[in-house]
Specification:
This protein is mainly α. About 60% of the residues lie in helices and about 5% in strands. The relative contact order is 0.05.
Length: about 375
C-alpha cells in the first residue's frame, strides 16, 4: 500500500507545480503589458497565455489520469486485503490466496530482473496487475540501463522531479551523476568545459561535500591513464555500474520498495525451515543417493538441493521420523522398523510395498536393494 500512496503524493505535487508555474507566468506577463499598449501586442500576449493554458490543461489531464490509475490500484489492494481476512478461515480459499501470493512474488522478481514483457503478460494472465506497480519497475530499470550505457539524462530528469525529497534526505545521487559528467569531460580532455561545468553544477554541493568536490577537481591534474589513487578509481568505467546500483537503491528507498526481492526472502526462509541434515547425509550424486531422500521434501529435490546448500539448517527441537517410501510420518500406525541390512522404513508402507510387488507370504522386500527378508528378521526401531 505504501508505493501507490507515494506515487499519488508525487503526482499531486507535480500537478501543483504545473499549475503554479503557468499562473505565475501569466500574472507576470499580463502585469508587464500595459492596458494602453498596442492592440496587436495585447492580442499576442493573450494568445500566448491561452496557448500555455491549453498546454497546462493537457499536462494536468495526463497527471489526473495517472492519479486515477494509482487510486484504482490502491482500491484493488484494499479489496484484496479484505478478501484475505474473509477467506483465511476456509482452507481451500487459503490455498488459492497462497497461490496468488506466489504469482505476485514471481512477477515482482521478474520485474526486478528486467523481464518486463513476460512479467506484464503473466500479471495480466493471473489478473494481478492491479496488485503490482509494473510501470514503476519498468521506469527504474530503463533509467538504470541508461546509466550503464553512460547516458545520464534520464537519471538527471528523475532527480529534478524528486529534487526536494533528495535534498531533504541529503542523498548524494545527483552529485554523483554530476561528478561523473565532470569526469567524462576531463577524460575527453575538454578541460575548459569541465571547469565551467564544475562552477555551474559542483560548486553548489561544496557545503555538504567539500572533500569530494576537491578530490574530483584534482582530476584536472591527472590524465585518464593515471595509476595514482584515488584518481585511477575515479576514471574507472566500473563507476557506471555503481551509479546504476546507487540509483536503484535510492529509487527503491524513496518508493518504499524493499531492497531485496520478497521472493528471495520467502524462499530463503522456507528453505531454511525445511532443511535438515538428512537432506545432505551422503556425498554421492543425488541420482544415486535415494535412500535419504523423500518424495515430498523440497530440499531433497535436485532443483532446490543445491540452492539450499547456503542457507542454515532448521532449528528443530523435536525429532520427526519421515518414511522414505511415502514421505509421511512414521508413527503408531506406521511405526519405524529395521530390516537386516540396516535400512529403516515404516512397517505399514513396507508391507504395502511387498504386497504390491507380489512378495511371498511372511517375507518383505527392501525397496532400495531388492533383497527379500523374512518378517521374523524385522526389528522395531526406537529413537533415544
Amino acid at each position: 500500500m505504501k508505493l501507490p500512496q507515494e506515487l499519488i503524493k508525487t503526482n499531486l505535487k507535480n500537478q501543483q507545480k504545473v499549475i503554479e508555474k503557468e499562473i505565475t507566468w501569466s500574472a507576470n506577463a499580463l502585469s508587464s503589458t500595459e492596458l494602453s499598449s498596442a492592440p496587436n501586442l495585447l492580442a499576442q500576449q493573450l494568445d500566448l497565455a491561452l496557448a500555455r493554458f491549453k498546454a497546462m490543461k493537457r499536462k494536468v489531464e495526463g497527471l489526473r489520469e495517472e492519479e486515477r490509475q494509482h487510486l484504482s490500484r490502491s482500491r484493488a489492494r484494499l479489496e484484496h486485503m479484505h478478501d484475505l481476512i474473509e477467506r483465511s478461515v476456509d482452507l481451500k480459499d487459503r490455498q488459492n490466496v497462497d497461490i496468488m501470493r506466489l504469482h505476485r512474488l514471481v512477477v515482482e522478481y521478474m520485474l526486478r530482473q528486467g523481464f518486463s514483457s513476460t512479467a506484464r503478460t503473466l500479471a495480466l494472465h493471473y489478473r494481478i496487475d492491479n496488485l503490482l506497480d509494473i510501470d514503476v519497475f519498468i521506469q527504474s530499470k530503463s533509467i538504470a540501463d541508461a546509466l550503464r550505457r553512460q547516458n545520464t539524462q534520464p537519471c538527471l530528469a528523475w532527480c529534478s522531479e524528486h529534487k526536494s525529497a533528495l535534498r531533504k534526505s541529503k542523498n548524494a545521487l545527483e552529485f554523483d551523476i554530476r561528478k561523473q559528467e565532470f569526469i567524462e569531460l576531463i577524460r575527453k580532455n575538454l578541460l575548459e568545459q569541465a571547469i565551467q561545468y564544475a562552477q555551474k553544477n559542483l560548486a553548489s554541493h561544496r557545503e555538504l561535500r567539500q572533500p569530494e568536490v576537491d578530490q574530483v577537481c584534482a582530476l584536472l591534474c591527472y590524465k585518464s591513464d593515471t595509476q595514482v589513487q584515488p584518481y585511477k578509481n575515479l576514471y574507472s568505467q566500473e563507476r557506471w555500474e555503481f551509479l546504476a546500483d546507487s540509483f536503484l537503491q535510492t529509487h527503491h528507498s524513496m518508493c518504499n520498495i524493499p531492497s531485496k526481492s520478497p521472493l528471495e526472502v520467502a524462499l530463503s526462509a522456507g528453505l531454511s525451515a525445511l532443511k535438515t541434515t538428512s537432506c545432505y547425509a551422503c556425498d554421492q550424486p543425488r541420482s544415486k543417493n535415494t535412500r535419504n531422500l523423500t518424495s515430498t521434501c523440497p530440499i531433497c529435490s535436485p532443483e532446490l538441493n543445491e540452492l539450499a546448500s547456503e542457507v542454515p539448517y532448521s532449528h528443530a527441537v523435536r525429532t520427526h521420523l519421515v518414511d522414505p517410501l511415502t514421505g509421511g510420518p512414521m508413527e503408531e500406525s506406521n511405526e519405524p522398523v529395521v530390516i537386516p541390512n540396516g535400512h529403516v522404513y515404516g512397517s505399514q508402507s513396507l508391507r504395502n510395498w511387498s504386497i504390491k510387488n507380489s512378495v511371498r507370504d511372511q517375507m518383505v522386500e527392501d525397496p532400495e536393494s531388492g533383497q527379500v527378508f523374512p518378517i521374523s528378521a524385522i526389528r522395531r526401531a526406537f529413537v533415544l
